[in-house]
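The protein record quoted in full:

***
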Amino acid sequence: MRVPQDPPSTQILLQRTLTRPQRLMELVAMRSEDLPQHEEYLHWDKLRHLSPPAGLSHEEWWWLVKRGRQSGRQGIPLRDKKGVSFSFSLVPEMFEALHHIDQRCAGNIAMPEQVTDGRTRDRYQINSLMEEAVTSSLLEGAAVTRQKARDMLRSGRKPTDKSERMIVNNFKTMQHLLNIKDRPLTPELVFEIHAMISEDALDKPDGAGRLRRADEYIEVSDDLDNIFHIPPAASQLPGRLEEMCFFANETGVNGFLHPVIRSIALHFWLAYDHPFVDGNGRTARALFYWSMLRGGYWLFQFISISQALLRSPSDYYRAFLHTKHDENDLNYFILHQLRCIETSIQDLHEYLARKSEQRRGLQIILRGLDWVNHRQQALLSHALEHDDAAYTFESHQRSHRISRMTAISDLRSLEEKGLLVSRLQGRQRVFRPIPNLETKLGTRTRP
């Protein structure tokens, strides 16, 4: 991926046009709606390759586009290394996306039944947190298959290498965010999140939970050593971190800022400052989640934003670079993130629809199995809806009013068939469904 070409300076373009008063009057008289309308928020790097409107040069077209974008511009406290503020303006695509997100991620209207039903809510929450933990790590270069990673998280197996450790750390962090969403963001909390993400997963172990030092030079580059971004100097980081936390916590201090826009800007802020020796991307996404949950978008505990990012990482980096290389215009990054959020919401709804259909099919399969009795069918049906359920000889005996010997026979038989696993807890043997019970039942029709 290459660094985009810097746009021509609008100030220089204006100065040139001032030497031609008649042409300046013609340009000023043009309205934004008279220009060709593009669905995409065009950067100069792409606009310069398109055919300009009749009678305009590429530079004049760009000047008119930039003039239209100045209306309603709103700055945020983040400044670049030269002290210039980042800013954004609400465009039609943002209004529509923000409305959809408000409708589908906050409150209880139009929420999927599976995430409002207490019987299934926990399972989908854990699955989503696992998906985000795995995908966020894959974005950062973790070398592990999805299935192996999920099996490790479900079984509780200890990680065996840095990639697996990264995934376990992400999973623990995602769970922790649910517990700290009501805490104000402070430098100490940012360090706490970074330390949790980075535990035993950094090349420099002492880098976890602290800002990078002056002797720790950081640059963002690709595999070909093309440098895309050099973050602010280490000496600036303490002050910038304090400003970031104030921005994350403020509500209405400098006028209303939509919570989703604030969350996206917080993500960009940490990615721009790159305050740690490693783990900046994962920390930036964690802060985004914290901010969304704090803002009342509770459905985000079921959504994996990294899944959408992983489909096209280059789009993420391009949006970041376009913002940097167009007078700190955050619209590029905000629009990209809004699209990712909408994609992630749609992914969740499609996933839940697929799982519901699969479970209906499994219930039909269960009723047709002649190698399990009606009591075992009832237990397996319950286990499909409660994958953290625990069964004992006594509980099974009470549920079906059967003898202890029959209860022992039922549970032992399901364990022998590979559908339950058991272990002694004190003096009691406890049975639990295997992690992949759905898959096992879906492929097994014979004893």
User: Anything to note?
Assistant: The first strand starts at residue 74 and ends at 79. The chain has three domains: 10-69, 78-352, 370-443. The chain has a mean pLDDT of 88.
